[in-house]
Design brief:
With about 260 residues, the protein is an alpha+beta fold. The chain has one domain (about 5-150, about 160-170, about 225-255): CNF1/YfiH-like putative cysteine hydrolases (4-Layer Sandwich). About 25% of the residues lie in helices and about 25% in strands. It is built from 8 helices and 15 strands. About 45% of the residues are buried.
Length: about 260
């Protein structure tokens, strides 16, 4: 018998039909070092265990999640692109939908999962935003596709939740990461990259601050979440940076059909 899934629900004010939660590592059957609710099929875990874990999560969802083949890119999967491509998994690092009960899913283990919802409850999005995707524009691309799906949707009517990711006190990066953001003229660089004493060209980076800055620049003000650190919470979260061999947790969102 498995333990109950330990879920984190976004701290946002949304219409009742917007449903979302993020899993933790608790409540599955995978063995160490993937213990226990590993949902990633490409992490090195036994595939039968992962599929059983996905079945456990599926029991709390209206449909099988849209599992993406994530490649740290900026492509957004849309209902139209999915129809044209046929069966998945779809190679993308974000997805949007306006179809009721279609469950969007993002897998992560340090990269930042980001959930989006229009305050009308008519369109949703989900993105996988590590530093490559974030600097490359995956958040902006997701918002663009949400607007394309919802006539009259204003950017200011979109709310965003920043899910569990590597925190600003543990995300050590090099000069290449700083430059990836600096070359775009992002003005928050001096606050988001703190030099590490005694090292040259090494910084502690704040993914959450970088994401908020980019979202604010677009006109989004309703931003919640961002208080987690996957590296610092081994009992709760998988972390590739901390453990290398590790599982993946999922952030999931859907538009529930009204009763």
């Amino acid at each position: 018998m498995t333990n109950a899934i330990n879920k984190i629900e976004p701290s946002w004010a949304m219409p009742q039909q917007i449903q979302a939660f993020c899993t933790t590592r608790q409540g599955g059957i995978s063995k160490s070092p993937f213990n226990s609710l590993n949902l990633g099929l490409n992490a090195g875990d036994d595939s039968a265990d992962v599929l059983q874990n996905r079945s456990i999560v599926r029991s709390e969802l209206p449909s099988e999640p849209l599992w993406l083949k994530q490649i740290h890119g900026v492509t957004v999967s849309t209902p139209a692109s999915r129809n044209s491509l046929g069966n998945g998994p779809f190679e993308a690092d974000a997805a949007v939908t306006n179809i009721p009960n279609e469950v969007l899913a993002i897998l992560a283990a340090d990269c930042m999962p980001v959930l989006f919802a229009s305050r009308s409850g008519e369109v949703i999005g989900a993105a996988h935003a590590g530093w490559r995707g974030l600097s490359g524009g995956v958040l902006e691309n997701t918002i663009d596709e949400m607007i394309a799906l919802s006539t009259g949707l204003m950017i200011s009517d979109i709310s965003v939740w920043l899910g569990p990711a590597i925190g600003p006190n543990t995300f050590e990066v090099g000069e290449d990461v700083l430059q990836a953001f600096a070359q775009q003229g992002q003005g928050i660089i001096s606050k988001a990259f703190i030099p590490i004493d005694g090292t040259s060209g090494k910084y502690l980076a704040d993914l959450y601050l970088l994401a908020r800055d980019r979202l604010h620049a677009l006109g989004i003000r309703q931003i919640t979440g961002g208080e987690f650190c996957t590296v610092s919470s081994p009992e709760r979260f998988f972390s590739y940076r901390r453990d290398k061999a590790t599982g993946r947790f999922a952030s999931l969102i859907w538009i529930a059909v009204s009763a």
